[in-house]
Structures are given as C-alpha cells and as structure tokens.
Design a protein that fits this description.
The chain is built from nine helices and eleven strands. It is an alpha/beta fold and about 290 residues long.
Length: about 290
C-alpha cells in the first residue's frame, strides 16, 4: 500500500549494512550506474553505498570523459570505494540504473537486452521511438521507466487525472514546471507525465498540448493544456497544475527540495526490479499506487 511504501522508503536507505551481508548470499543487488559522474549519478553512488543491500559493480560515463579511471566514490565525494569509473561495463550486474541522456539510454538499453540485465530508466526527454524500444526490450528483460521517481509526484500523477475528471471540461488546465539552468529537455518528463494523466483521464489526445503562447492572436482553445517551462538557477524541480474557471482556481503543486528523493525512488525501484519477470513497469508498480 502507498502508506506502507512511504514508511519503508523513508527509512530503508539509511539502514546499516548488516554483518555478513555479502554478494552471493541473496541479500545484495548488484547494480551499475550509468551517468556516474552526473548530478544524479553521484548521489546514486553515495546513497547506494549507504544502503545495506547494494553492491556497485559498475560506474560508467561516456567514452572520452575526463573522469575515466578515477575512483567513483571520490568523484561522488564519499572517499574511495575501490571502483574506477569506466566507459564500458565488464561485470554483469542485476540492474543498470540509467540517468544519462536519450542517446546514451538507447545504447545501455541495447546492452541490457543483449546481456539479460534489468534496467531502471530515469533519463527524460525520451521520444516515441525510445518508448517503442523499451517495449521491445521489456519482452525479454524487466524494465522500469519513470520520468520522476518520487512518491509525491507519482501520487500527483494519479490525482491530477482524477481532479481533471471531477472538475470537467469548463476548467482550463495549465502546467508550469521550473528546473535548474542546466536541464536539457523541455517540457520536463514530469510535466508531460502530468499532462498524460489528465489527457487519459479526460479522453483527450496529445494534440491538445500547447507549449507556451506567443503572438497577437493566440486565445486559449477549449480543452487545450498549456505547458510552460522556467529554467532558473539551481531549482531542483517544481510542478504546478492549475485548474481555472470563471471565479475560481485550484492548484496542485509539488516541490522537490533535493535530488535524493529521486535517488531513493530509483534505488528502491532497482531492488524491486531485480526480482521481477520481464515486462515494462512504472514506479507506481513499486509503490503500490495502481
Ligand atoms: P547530468 O548531465 O548531470 O548527468 C548525465 C551524465 O550522463 C553525464 O555525466 C554524462 O557524461 C553521462 N553520459 C552521457 N553519455 C553517456 C554514456 N554513453 N554512458 C554513460 N554515461 C553517459 O544530468 P542529471 O541532472 O544527472 O540528469 C540525467 C537525466 O536524468 C536527465 O535526463 C534528467 O532529466 C533525468 N532526471 C530524471 C529524474 C527522475 O526522477 N526520473 C530525476 C532527475 C533527473
């Protein structure tokens, strides 16, 4: 259940490593982290090391990266862990956790498929063709893809659709997201996830999404969903869905105050995914939100 999931999630990553918990005893999940030198990758290494249940067997970056051969723990800021950063992956982990960019995700998805490795995909900015490739891979390996790994956002996905349905089509819907200045894709995967949940709940197609508005004659059309992206300093991630009609407005806001919320979700997903059959999963499956 969602509540149980939350209690578990808030405590599991800080559990001390139990004595005798070594790989091969069935207690640890072997993971490799792609994008290991990135913002998410460094926190994944840090929190996976703190947790009792993971063995990090690969920390991977793009070929030619200046940090290749440096110790992954030193790069993450936790001191040496005896694992040099590489651009290839020699050991075969139970799960690859990928927070990179779409072209890199495609490469690692193929590796997972060829070598029978489960994959957690947090990378955003994916296209229709990427989703199709994930569907094909999921016929032979377990794959969990989620544009946002936090419990709060996944609850928001669910209730945004329910709110849209309850309020009906006289309420205009606008989605505003804000992220740090380095973010590449726009709108965010989370904003698109929120839009999708509303589109599905209300039987509309993606053609109803409008990115920003600009011009002398661009009045809102009934049923469209406006998408707006702010890029500001070090903002971790803020999403607001506004439902407005004549005389009132209802707003749903999620604010990520740091990246660890996504990292906890991704690690929890990896632990869960390692035990699943081939198939395509979402974070809602892990958290029991379906
Ligand atoms: P970042 O730019 O800091 O890190 C990405 C890393 O991927 C870089 O270090 C880059 O060198 C590496 N990389 C590129 N090509 C690679 C390859 N072929 N193999 C291995 N590594 C490669 O970005 P970030 O802020 O860590 O975010 C990464 C992705 O995760 C983005 O798409 C972002 O939107 C997404 N993200 C998702 C969630 C979520 O909850 N799903 C949360 C935060 C970020």
């Amino acid at each position: 259940m969602a509540n149980g999931a939350f209690i578990h999630r808030s405590t599991w990553a800080s559990r001390p490593r139990p004595k005798g918990a070594v790989a091969g005893e069935g207690k640890m999940t072997d993971i490799a982290i792609t994008g290991a030198a990135g913002r998410m990758g460094r926190r994944l290494i840090t929190l996976a090391r703190e947790a009792a249940i993971f063995r990090i067997v690969g920390a991977v970056v793009r070929p030619g990266h200046p940090l290749i051969d440096r110790d992954a723990g030193e790069v993450a800021g936790i001191g040496p862990i005896g694992l040099p950063i590489s651009f290839d992956l020699k050991p075969t982990p139970d799960v690859i956790i990928d927070f990179t960019a779409p072209p890199a995700m495609r490469h690692w998805l193929k590796v997972c498929r060829d070598r029978g490795i489960a994959m957690v995909i947090g990378t955003t900015g994916l296209h229709r063709v990427d989703h199709a490739a994930i569907d094909v891979a999921a016929e032979t390996i377990p794959v969990l893809q989620a544009p946002n790994m936090s419990l709060g956002v996944n609850v928001m996905f669910k209730i945004a659709g329910e709110l849209a349905k309850l309020l009906g089509d006289d309420y205009d819907v606008e989605i505003v997201e804000a992220h740090h200045r380095f973010k590449k894709d726009a709108p965010s995967g989370t904003a698109l996830g929120l839009a999708d949940s509303i589109l599905v709940a209300t039987g509309r197609s993606r053609e109803m999404l409008v990115s920003g508005r600009h011009g002398d004659d661009v009045p809102r059309k009934r049923g469209e969903i406006g998408m707006h992206s702010l890029r500001l300093g070090d903002e971790t991630g803020r999403h607001t869905v506004s439902f407005g009609t004549l005389g009132e407005r209802l707003e749903l806001t999620h604010v990520a105050t740091n990246r660890d919320t996504f990292v906890h979700g991704a690690l929890r997903a990896a632990e869960w995914l390692a035990k699943q059959k081939p198939g395509r999963y979402s974070i809602s499956d892990v958290l029991g939100l379906k």
